């Protein structure tokens, strides 16, 4: 078979068959040949070169082979007999080294020379290897062909640790296989979400949770710095070191970070190549005698990494070479993950955009998340997790660009529901349910009971929740209960209390309560369990949830910077010209020469255009650029000053007056107490800004009676006032109580703050909060047996983690990306640019 | 060919999802490069059409940034102010290739490039 062939010999005169040479015995190359044979079997003499020493097999099934669900024989597409029966010369295990377009021939590694009339390049892709030290160590493998699978199986046979770099489709399938084969698997993924090109944050979080449940370690947002080798043992891998310095032991490292079209041959042969080999709609390259298909090509600007587009390309190619051109117009693709027991589907564009509408359905008890993206009445994309039965239906609607306005309401419930005629109206579907149908799974409430409850006077969602408990727990049946309300009452449903934002049907109170009750500890978890109707929340709920989680789980929850307003992210106040102001803390309004000197030095060193005494008894330095903030803070830190949090929904200032130390009317040491209070409370995040003042006598020079917490000293002790507000709508404080000692004042201050932190809505200052809940409610709560000690203790516990100067951390280099420019562009004259 | 028309401004990992970073241009306008939580990248002039607020410092949600100064919502895709507000900020064509971010050179350097 391997002897050079004489093509003239044995061919009838006048009917010389064209010679088709195919480089690449993979999925696209063989499929193209099959398609040509189906149209015109006698047209070509076919020779296929394959670098792999075997017949053509179904590459995508390597994952089930690794997982032990299939054998190699079961995934072979074309056996030896197929090549023989169709007169195809298969040159396997021999890589083509060069293409000589001038003489129309290819040269293989073995030295074999093969002339062609038409050449087909189908070289697929090469796995991308990240250029880190140690990438060439023994035990570092990729996941592309059967040899790779064999290497992984050999390693798995010995057990131990496997590290997979890359949390995309391939990486996760490799991780799953190795996990099933008994290895201890860690996945390292650069991005914060697994499979970020196919999944949104919500689905990515569900996937991560499930894989962790199966015993895999998933490290997202993790950057590989180095692959380390075993001491003394030549070239054998021992582990992976991450950028943060941590090291994960590994007996095998699988690199699955992406693929690059294999274009080397084509590039060297002078064909037009960008990211892939450039082809037209008929898969013809820049040389009319050379065709290309598969992952190695670039068509209309796109390169593909899935098989579905290859089938269409091969059809167009075969139509073209058999002179019946149809053309290929590009493909839309969909993705499934081949990990048993995980149902996941993604298709189209889910990045959202102008005019896009997200329809989201979540069912926490079944672990289902569905999101369909609609624009101008057409399905643009879909992400499904946990229930993918309707994936192909959405994909079909998407590809056909069908108008979905008629089924819009029922779209998210799936094909069976949406095409159910009368049932397309969710209300009609609910009406059709029998009386004993269970609506609320959590509390076991039937339709009949809910209807009875509504007829008994519960005319709002909230009334139903408190009346018969339906939808009061996980809330997944909220839609159904709302349908029952409108069915039973017609138009008379009373709208419930204000929800947290448009992403949820829950109120602030519900969300706060459920975070604690259900132990919800991460933002995507709250959104999934509480059925958020958007994939990743909005600018209203993200900051609120961030605060609620921080308040509920001090020391445990990791603050989410991107959910914070710029001032809280940069720990300074943004000004109208985009610069920042810096307000260092001056405890109780006291200062000293060292602090004043440091401030003066900063003003001169950074050329700050203005310094001003604020209304909060401290100094404000204006006009600092975001790049200079860390250096300014370092200088202020050096003089012992910390952030004044003039920018935060947090404790701002504690204003004091001079008090008994100097003032002829002073009754107590108001300055000293103010400093103690500020030392106790600084750094705490609050629902809104929080201000405190301590006045030494009822003349009240520190304006304590318009503060969130105010202390007015009197001869017999301390009057504690709450819920005052200057600002837009002035509100004088209410007297909370009177205490005799400083210790009691401090204790009550801590207790009141913690109660406010745990009870108020995000962005509700103490004044509107007390107006809403009533002074008596606050007094009663704090008067409960042991309440003051209890709240104060919780506040102190939380403060352990909060009293960590954010400026010092930034000055030491934390989050430096937030302050530094990416780079600077310095345009050069064109002549210099050539060499740049 | 990439080298000629496109300016490589570094790896995608330098911008955390949901944030933006800045790119000053000597003799030109500063650019804000955004990475959304849905993993798209955009580049815009770093000046709000309202009163020149630094858009790079706003909260990013979907493909929108909320200006930190007076909360205008600006589409990262088109540069247009959304809702009732009117105005538009220039966008700079951007592409991501093999984990690196590229900006269209002529749009970054603008007039100076053509003049040379
Ligand atoms: C700097 C300062 C003015 C000054 O030069 O004195 C100031 C400056 C600002 N105040 Fe104030 N307030 C300042 C003391 C006050 C006071 C006086 C006080 O604290 O005793 C009040 C009235 C008391 C009160 O809060 O109840 C005050 C009531 C407000 C309000 C209205 C709050 C309200 O509940 O109605 C706002 C608007 C808001 O927060 O939404 C506000 C907002 C602001 C903002 C943050 C406006 C903004 O969003 O950009 C200003 C930031 C400027 C900056 O970059 O530093 N500022 N502001 C004072 C800083 C105090 C400090 O050392 O931290
Ligand atoms: C583990 C795994 C799982 C996958 N799962 C899926 C999935 O679920 N769904 C999906 O749609 N896609 C999946 N894919 C992707 C799919 O396999 C590819 O899109 C498809 O194989 C591409 O076909 P191709 O012919 O272009 O490349 P290949 O199938 O890679 O074929 C190219 C062939 O050319 C050979 N070759 C290269 N250079 C030369 C040379 N110079 N000389 C001779 N021979 C050469 C190579 O050895 C290779 O055999 C998966 C891929 C892998 C690796
Ligand atoms: S009173 Fe108005 S203008 Fe003055 S600092 Fe406060 S917010 Fe700004
Ligand atoms: S400057 Fe952007 S909203 Fe005013």
Number of strands of chain A: 36
Instruction: Enumerate the spans of chain A where pLDDT stays under 50 for 5 or more consecutive residues.
Output: 1-14, 829-836
Shape estimate of chain A: globular
Strand order of the largest sheet of chain B: 1-9-8
Biggest beta sheet attributes of chain B = 3 strands, antiparallel
SS-based structural class of chain B? mainly beta
What count of structural domains of chain A? 5
Q: pLDDT average of chain B, as an integer?
A: 87
The CATH class of the largest domain in chain A is identified as: Alpha Beta
Largest interface: A-B, 52 and 53 residues
**CATH architecture annotation name of chain B:** 3-layer Sandwich
Shape of chain B: globular
Count the helices of chain B. How many?
Answer: 3
Q: What kind of oligomer do you see?
A: heterodimer
CATH homologous superfamily of chain B?
Rieske [2Fe-2S] iron-sulphur domain
Number of strands of chain B: 9
Please name the defining characteristics of this protein.
heterodimer; A: 836 residues; alpha/beta; FAD/NAD(P)-binding domain; Enolase-like, domain 1; 5 domains; 20% strand; disordered N terminus; disordered C terminus; B: 116 residues; mainly beta; Rieske Iron-sulfur Protein; three-stranded antiparallel sheet; binds siroheme; binds flavin-adenine dinucleotide; binds iron/sulfur cluster; binds FE2/S2 (inorganic) cluster
Short description:
Chain A is of the alpha/beta class. Helices cover 32% and strands 20% of the residues of chain A.
Helix/strand layout:
The complex is a heterodimer of chains A (836) and B (116).
Chain A: E1 18-23, H1 27-39, E2 44-50, H2 62-67, H3 72-75, H4 80-85, E3 89-92, E4 96-100, E5 105-108, E6 113-115, E7 118-121, E8 125-127, E9 140-142, H5 146-157, E10 161-165, H6 169-180, E11 184-188, H7 201-213, E12 217-219, E13 224-229, E14 237-242, E15 247-249, E16 252-255, E17 259-261, H8 264-268, E18 277-279, E19 290-292, E20 297-299, H9 307-321, E21 334-336, E22 344-348, E23 356-363, E24 368-375, E25 378-385, H10 391-400, H11 415-418, H12 426-431, E26 438-440, E27 445-446, H13 447-455, H14 461-468, H15 478-489, H16 508-517, H17 523-529, H18 541-552, H19 566-570, E28 573-574, E29 580-582, H20 593-605, E30 610-613, E31 619-624, H21 629-638, E32 651-656, H22 670-681, E33 690-695, E34 709-714, E35 717-722, E36 734-739, H23 742-759, H24 766-773, H25 775-783, H26 787-802, H27 806-811, H28 830-833
Parallel strand pairs in A: 1-2, 1-7, 2-3, 7-19, 9-16, 10-11, 10-16, 11-12, 18-20, 32-33, 33-34
Antiparallel strand pairs in A: 4-5, 5-6, 8-17, 13-14, 14-15, 21-22, 22-25, 23-24, 24-25, 26-27, 28-29, 29-31, 30-31, 34-35, 35-36
Helix pairs in contact in A: 1-9, 7-17, 13-14, 13-15, 16-18, 20-21, 22-23, 23-26
Chain B: H1 2-5, E1 6-11, E2 19-23, E3 31-35, E4 41-45, E5 59-61, E6 64-66, E7 73-75, E8 94-97, E9 100-104, H2 105-109, H3 111-115
Antiparallel strand pairs in B: 1-9, 2-3, 3-4, 5-6, 6-7, 8-9
Bound molecules: siroheme (SRM), flavin-adenine dinucleotide, iron/sulfur cluster (SF4) and FE2/S2 (inorganic) cluster.
Flavin-adenine dinucleotide (FAD) is lined by residues 23-29, 49-52, 59-60, 62-63, 95-96, 122-124, 143-144, 170, 262, 265, 294-295, 305-308, 310, 338 of chain A.
């Amino acid at each position: 078979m391997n002897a050079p062939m004489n093509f003239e010999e044995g061919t009838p005169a006048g009917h010389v068959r064209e010679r088709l040479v195919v480089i690449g015995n993979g999925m696209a190359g063989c499929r193209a040949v099959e398609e040509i044979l189906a149209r015109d079997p006698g047209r070509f003499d076919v020779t296929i070169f394959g670098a792999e020493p075997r017949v053509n097999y179904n590459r995508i099934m390597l994952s089930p082979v690794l997982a032990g669900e299939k054998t190699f024989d079961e995934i072979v597409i074309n056996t030896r007999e197929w090549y023989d029966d169709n007169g195809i010369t298969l040159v396997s295990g021999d890589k083509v080294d060069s293409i000589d377009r001038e003489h129309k021939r290819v040269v293989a590694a073995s030295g074999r020379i093969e002339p062609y009339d038409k050449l087909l390049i189908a070289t697929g892709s090469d796995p991308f290897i990240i250029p880190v030290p140690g990438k060439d160590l023994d035990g570092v493998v990729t996941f592309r062909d059967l040899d790779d699978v064999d290497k992984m199986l050999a390693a798995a046979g010995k057990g131990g640790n496997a590290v997979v770099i890359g949390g995309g489709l391939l990486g996760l399938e490799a991780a799953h296989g190795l996990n099933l084969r008994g290895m201890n698997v860690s996945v390292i993924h650069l991005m914060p979400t697994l499979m970020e090109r196919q999944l949104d944050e919500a689905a990515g979080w569900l996937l991560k949770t499930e894989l962790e449940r199966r015993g895999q370690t998933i490290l997202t947002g993790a950057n590989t710095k180095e692959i380390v080798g075993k001491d003394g043992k030549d070239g054998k891998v021992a582990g992976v070191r991450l950028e943060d310095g941590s090291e994960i032991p590994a007996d095998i490292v699988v690199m699955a970070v992406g693929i690059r079209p294999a274009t080397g041959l084509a590039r060297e042969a002078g064909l037009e190549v960008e990211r892939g080999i450039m082809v037209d709609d008929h898969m013809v390259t820049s040389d009319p005698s050379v065709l290309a298909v598969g992952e190695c090509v670039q068509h209309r600007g796109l390169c593909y990494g899935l098989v579905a587009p290859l089938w269409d390309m091969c059809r167009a190619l075969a139509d073209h070479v058999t002179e019946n051109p149809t053309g290929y117009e590009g493909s839309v693709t969909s993705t499934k993950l081949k990990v048993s027991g995980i149902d996941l589907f993604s298709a189209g564009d889910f990045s959202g955009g102008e005019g896009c509408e997200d329809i989201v359905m979540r069912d926490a008890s079944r672990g289902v998340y569905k999101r369909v993206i609609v624009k101008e009445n057409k399905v643009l994309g879909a992400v499904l997790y946990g229930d993918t039965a309707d994936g192909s239906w959405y994909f079909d609607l998407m590809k056909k660009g069908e108008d979905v306005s008629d089924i819009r309401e029922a779209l998210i419930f799936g094909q069976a529901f949406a095409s159910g005629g009368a049932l397309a109206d969710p209300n009609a579907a609910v009406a059709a349910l029998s009386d004993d149908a269970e609506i609320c799974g959590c509390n076991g409430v039937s339709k009949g009971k809910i209807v009875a409850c509504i007829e008994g006077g519960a005319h709002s969602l909230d009334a139903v929740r408190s009346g018969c408990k339906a939808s009061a727990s996980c809330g997944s049946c909220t839609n159904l209960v709302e349908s029952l309300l409108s069915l039973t009452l017609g138009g008379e449903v009373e709208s419930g209390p204000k929800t947290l934002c448009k992403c949820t049907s829950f109120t602030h109170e519900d969300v706060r309560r459920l975070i604690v009750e259900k132990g919800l500890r991460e933002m995507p978890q709250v959104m999934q369990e509480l059925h958020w109707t958007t994939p990743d929340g909005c600018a209203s709920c993200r900051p609120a949830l961030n605060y609620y989680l921080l308040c509920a789980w001090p020391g445990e929850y990791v603050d989410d910077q991107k959910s914070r307003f710029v001032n809280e992210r940069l720990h300074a106040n943004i000004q109208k010209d985009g610069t920042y102001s810096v307000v260092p803390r001056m405890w109780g309004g006291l200062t000293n020469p060292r602090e004043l000197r440091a401030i003066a030095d900063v003003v001169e060193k950074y050329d700050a255009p203005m310094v001003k005494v604020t209304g909060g008894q401290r100094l404000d330095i204006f006009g600092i650029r975001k790049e200079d903030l860390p250096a300014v803070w370092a200088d202020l830190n050096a003089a012992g000053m910390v952030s004044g949090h003039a920018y935060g929904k947090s404790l701002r200032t504690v204003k004091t007056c001079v008090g008994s130390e100097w003032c002829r009317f002073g009754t107590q040491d108001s300055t000293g107490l103010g400093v103690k209070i500020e030392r106790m409370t600084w750094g705490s995040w609050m629902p809104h800004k929080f201000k405190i003042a301590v006045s030494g006598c009822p003349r009240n020079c520190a304006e304590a009676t318009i503060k969130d917490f105010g202390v007015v000293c009197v001869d017999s002790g301390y009057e504690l006032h709450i819920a005052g507000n200057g600002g837009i709508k002035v509100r004088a404080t209410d007297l909370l109580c009177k205490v005799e000692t400083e210790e009691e004042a401090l204790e009550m201050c801590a207790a009141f703050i913690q109660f406010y932190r745990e009870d108020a809505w995000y962005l509700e200052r103490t004044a509107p909060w007390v107006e809403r809940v009533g002074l008596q409610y606050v007094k009663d709560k704090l008067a409960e047996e042991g309440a003051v000690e209890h709240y104060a203790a919780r506040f102190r516990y939380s403060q352990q983690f909060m009293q960590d100067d954010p400026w010092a951390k930034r000055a030491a280099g934390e989050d430096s990306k937030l302050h530094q420019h990416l780079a600077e562009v310095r345009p050069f004259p064109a002549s210099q640019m050539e060499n740049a | 060919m990439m080298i000629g028309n496109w300016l490589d401004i570094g790896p995608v990992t330098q911008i955390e999802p949901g944030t933006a970073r800045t790119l000053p241009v000597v003799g030109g306008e500063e650019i804000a490069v955004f990475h959304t939580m849905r993993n798209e990248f955009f580049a815009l002039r770093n000046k709000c059409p309202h009163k020149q607020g630094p858009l790079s410092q706003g909260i990013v949600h979907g493909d929108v940034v909320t200006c930190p100064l007076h909360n205008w919502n600006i589409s990262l895709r088109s540069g247009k102010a959304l809702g009732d507000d009117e105005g538009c900020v220039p966008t700079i064509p951007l592409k991501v290739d093999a984990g690196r971010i590229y900006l269209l050179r002529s749009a970054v350097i603008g007039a100076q490039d053509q003049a040379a």
